[in-house]
From TrEMBL:
Entry cofactors: NAD(+)
Domain Urocanase Rossmann-like: 130-338
Pfam families named in the record: Urocanase, Urocanase_C, Urocanase_N
Protein name, as recorded: Urocanate hydratase
One term of GO molecular function: urocanate hydratase activity
PANTHER family (UniProt xref): UROCANATE HYDRATASE (PTHR12216)
Lineage: Bacteria, Bacillati, Bacillota, Bacilli, Lactobacillales
Amino acid sequence: MTIKAQRGQTLRAKGWRQEAILRLLENNLENAEDQANLVVYGALGKAARDWPAYQGIVHALKNLEEDETLIVQSGKPIGVLKTHPDAPIVLLANSNLVGHWSNAADWYKLYDQGLTAWGGLTAGDWQYIGSQGVVQGTYEIFKIIAQKHFQGSLAGRFILTAGLGGMGGSQPLAGYMADAAILVVEVNEAHADKRIASGYLQYKAHSLPEALKLINAARAKKEAISVGLIGNAAEIYQALLDQNITPDIVSDQTAAQDLLYGYIPEGYSLAQAEAERTSDPEKLAAAAGQSIAHEVRSELEFQRRGSIVFDNGNNIRTQAKEFGVTDAFDIPIFTEAFLRDLFVKAIGPFRWIALSGAEADIQLIDDYLLTEFADNELIVDWIKKANQYVPFQGLPARIGWLGHGERTKLALAVNDLVARGKLQAPVAFTRDHLDAGAMAHPNIMTENLKDGSDAIADWPLINAMTMASSKADLVAIHSGGGGYAGYMQSAGVTVVADGTPAAAERLRLAFNNDTSLGLLRYADAGYEASLTEVKERGVRRIDTQQFKQ
Ligand code: NAD
């Protein structure tokens, strides 16, 4: 059986909210890296615990009444509770462990016992839209690097990175869109083929000289190019150093957070890693850790030689440090280095998915943005580029980095378009967990915060409770990060614009409150830009300083 998201106007559930969530679940699997094993992306990020759990969720969603809530615990449906029509229709908690037991060893033990599943950020709560979900973030990073270090342009510049999986597969397209020559090392040829088939990658090479020939030819003409090199990142990075080749920008987006399922050690074939995963997992994990350490040492050497090096959110520095690379954190994290200026203003990765399956629906919303947000340079540049270069995967969807008030403005306008029959079916709105008020991850999102509150996990928990109180349709609390435990806490939210006044109220409350919390979180950490936004946009912040006697 192959799962594909239902398109069109026919409902299988008792209302559009339930049908929408069901289509999003199916869409996650339609876009999955390994549908047979329910793995959506990120090595082990699953849409459901197992197939009976998946069928149980589908059955529940089809039969759910408007005033009921489905409860899902780490990918397994637990029950249906009687709530009320303004309550979320799905509540999920994925991969959370009690603090003291929140470590890789305990997590894998519980996973092997079938008691938990990793939800990733958007896998476990059915918000995945394929590689596009991170394309804009990566594109904005490249643009910011161009402005900061390369006089505003990456034309003729060489980006080296690795990983062509579900999320990493966004890198070649983002690099291409930013006018660079980008080389992505990938150990699994089938994954490179998948990116070529989906339009995210242009060329595939089987040797470093072959890849460099393509890259250098494009650089000489200042033309953009994306090349996937079949090989192991640890080996290729070393080979480039040995040949005294220093890329302009270096990163990595392999699934380095996972030493067993995510990162293939140098010298290993895929089959060898697969076999050792059961025969000698400790040996495999140690070899992966050592390879990661080698790769990160190479990244540090590239940095010394002048490359702009950054960690792209896969916990690679943390793993390297555990395997002896004491200076791994000399490499900055992308959030702090490039995107924090946006997050402090609660500008982050908002998404919308056309439940009709019609590309024309996304096109109409693109057109609306280009007219109504004409003075927002970031979104106009992105929408134009996305329109030209980003192919749809599964249900047509769009990501757009928008801030407080902007998200609600768009969502309400779309709800109105649905009501007036201008769109062929309702549209689901969601955002990445990696967003201003929704994630505590001291090695990614909240690294080096001004007030040192990096590890405080209250914020995403407050976010999830607020979303549930703001009539959102789906709310999730996730944990995980590295070895799937102990590194982060995050919250997810989805609201369906079905054209009704009730949906308008849900969209207004949920998305205003979501970004309000983002602004309040950074204002609390002392960021001036957030304090200004809070004041200018009328967010009601309580400043306890004023009560000092
Ligand atoms: P994935 O499991 O789908 O893909 C990982 C890829 O890395 C696979 O194709 C694998 O074959 C390849 N790989 C493994 N070891 C390799 C090696 N030694 N050399 C070359 N290639 C190797 O994972 P994904 O969904 O692409 O996610 C990758 C990482 O990015 C994860 O750690 C994820 O948590 C992180 N992530 C970051 C962001 C962000 O905002 N920056 C967003 C989502 C995910």
